[in-house]
Amino acid sequence: MPARKRRPSARKRTPGSGTSVGRVTSSRLPTSARPSAPPSGRYARVVLQALAAVVAGFVAMGVVAGLGLWAAGAADLPGGFTAVLAAVVVMASGGKVELSGDAGALAGTQAELTAMPLTVTLVGALVTGFCFLRPLRHHAVTGTRELLLRAASVVVLWLAALAGVSALARHDFPLILGGDAQDPLTDLFGELLDAVNPTVGFRTDVGPTLFYGLLWILGVLAVALLVSRGTPLPPRLVRYHGPVRPAAFAMLLLLLAYVVVGLVIGIVVAATRGHAAETLAVLLLGLPNVAWLALGVGIGGSWQGKAEGPFGLPMPQILDAVLRGDGDSPDLSTVDLSSLAAQDARAWWLLPVAAVLVLAAAFVAAVRSPARITLWQHALHLGVAFALTMLVAAPVTLVEARFGLSVLGIGDLESLGGEVVLRPDVWKTAGFGLLWGLAFGFLGGLLAFRVHRKGEVDQDT
To answer: 98, 345, 392, 425 — which has fewest CB within 10 A?
Structure first.
């Protein structure tokens, strides 16, 4: 039989090499893998993302504050609009702005302002928190080291930007006593005290500003992580996802719901009762100041305050009437549901509105919670969350504004002095928040009992 010819191998060799195509391909595989970014590159990317969050937050606050000041007529200030804008942004970030005055050798001025323009604060917090979380949205797991690096970058850049804005927040304005040169008051200051043009100004107290600004930005980042269900947590914190995040998100939703309701009411008032510019200024600068006070009063909380003199704050007339009281008592007036209803019976609507919105927030918290959470746990989680929310929301509504002009140290001139004070009863309001959270957390859990729950379900429990 003729010998069988050996079938040539199907593996071809490349010219000038002793390796097959398969071997060549396998030898190139390791080199085709994409190398990981070096630590310096990752750090630079994190810093750029942090810088974007800080810039976006300050720009958002500046735009809202600028529109609010423009609506309030601050654009006509003599060369001080930029300084006033910077001061509003500083106060919105938790900073402290001190007022000062000069009325000549024998006359003195006293001025004080403690308040937060919470509309500006809220917009800045929402924008900064969103930009802080956005780079983490596609991560399956976030390491503790990476999270701390991102937070530290935002904090450092935020404080640097706040220090720069604080340097701009300083200006002096002339205080015009009267338009009539023959007015006795003008003659008194002009001829005897050499104080025809006293001045009032403001400066940023840098130390407290940076300290409270640090607390502010840390709070914003912490709340952003608490309310975001889609942002991964470090492995050690994953166990807190179920009990903490749904209640925290519900509380944020409740605060925003009150702001939205106040915004709708403000737009209706501006469209039907006139004074549109003044109403718009309140909406753009201090809407949450009034809205969150309404929430606290609606659940049974209270504030103490008074308003004296020709100066006042842009606030609802019913609140101003309660703060002024009978005009002669030196004691503070109590702002609660009964005192507001004594001025206007429609204030009783704050109670059912609070009940509906708190119940809706409790239902949302229950629906977003894992199915293993029991009714009493819903009640406890919402009660603690509501109490903590009021411990934060009530103090930031504090307002203390005083201005006085004295001659030879003998008291204030009534025509040029004024005082507005509004202080929350924090622990009372937080206590009612705890009670409401416990009750409505239980009811919200009952309503969500047959609703499909999102999140992990632990079959072993």
So the answer is: 345
Q: Give the pLDDT confidence of 299-312 residue by residue, as tens digits.
A: 999 999 988 876 55
Strand order through the sheet with 199-204: 97-102, 199-204, 171-174
How many other C-beta atoms are found inside a 10 Å radius of the C-beta of residue 267? Answer: 14
Torsion of CA 158, 163, 167, 168, to 10 degrees: 10
Q: How far is CA 164 from CA 79, 156, 285, 371, 405, in A?
A: 19, 13, 22, 49, 32
CA distance linking residue 437 with residue 357, whole number of Å? 12
Element (H, E) at 293: helix 276-298
Phi then psi for residue 457, to 5 deg, are -120, 125
What 3-state class would DSSP assign to 106?
Answer: coil
Three-point CA angle 219, 224, 230, nearest 5°: 160
Task: Return phi, psi of residue 315, to 5°.
Answer: -140, 160
436-450 burial by CB neighbour count: b if 16+ within 10 A, else e?
bbbbbbbbbbeebee
Mean per-residue pLDDT of the chain: 80
Contact 133, 221 (CB under 8 A): no
What does the block give as tokens for 322?
């309660």
Dihedral of the alpha carbons of 298, 303, 306, 310, in degrees to the nearest 10: -50
DSSP string computed for 168-213: H--EEEE----S-TT-HHHHIIIIISS-SS-EEEEEE-HHHHHHHH
Token pair 């609660």: residue: 336
pLDDT recorded at residue 278: 86
pLDDT digits (tens, 9 = 90+) for 364-420: 999 988 888 889 999 999 999 999 999 999 999 998 887 765 554 444 444 456 788
Contact (Cβ atoms closer than 8 angstroms) between residue 88 and residue 96: no
Scored b (16 or more CB within 10 A) or e, 94-131 reads: bbbbebebbbbeebbbebebebbbbbbbbbbbbbbbeb
Return the SS3 of 420: strand
Q: Which DSSP symbol is given to 97? A: E
Which CA distances in Å does 204 have to 32, 63, 90, 175, 426? 57, 20, 8, 20, 27
**Location of structure tokens 């003199």:** 309
Which helix (H) or strand (E) is 432 found in, with range? helix 426-447
CA trace torsion 140, 141, 145, 146 (10° rounding): 10
Using one digit for the tens of pLDDT, what is the confidence trace for 19-36?
Answer: 444 444 443 444 434 444
> From CA 156, how far away is CA 263, in angstroms rounded?
34
CB 69 within 8 A of CB 157: no
